[in-house]
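User: Show me a protein chain along with its predicted structure.
Assistant: Here is one chain, sequence first, then structure tokens.
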Amino acid sequence: MQVLKQFSIPLKGLKIGHHDYAYHFGKEFFSAFDNAPFSKGEFDSQIQLEKKSDHLIVLIRFSGHFLTECDRCTDEIPFPLSGNYEMIVKYDVDEREEEDVMYIQPDSSEFNLAKLIHDGVFLSMPLYKTCEAVEGKECDQDVLDRFISAAPETKEEGNALAEALKNLKLK
């Protein structure tokens, strides 16, 4: 996990106040995580970290694209994605993560941002990804035509299961 080492922020000696960091990450970054939703992509992120005496405030902004299949025509597309979110990091003997608060050991010498960045990208992914999101790209009409011609024809008499459910009397 050497690729994730660059995302470590040294906490010991870090002065109270604002600190800015910038990262570029891609395939190697995503492959370092198990069950990554995608492995090919290029992103840039800007991190604003504010150190206070008893906690950290981390603002993460990212933008870029990942390669995925269009959910409509199955063509591979560079799907654009951007987002931002804030996380508060507090010190506690029990390391844990809650909704917008992460707890780390009080004697931690460094804090690695990789998981926060990965989770932010993952949670920003839409459920439905189509060619329409890519500028100048349209769905492959040949594939769409094949899907339409392969669809089963509807029967005039209707669906037997739907008819049976209509006749079901409740109460």
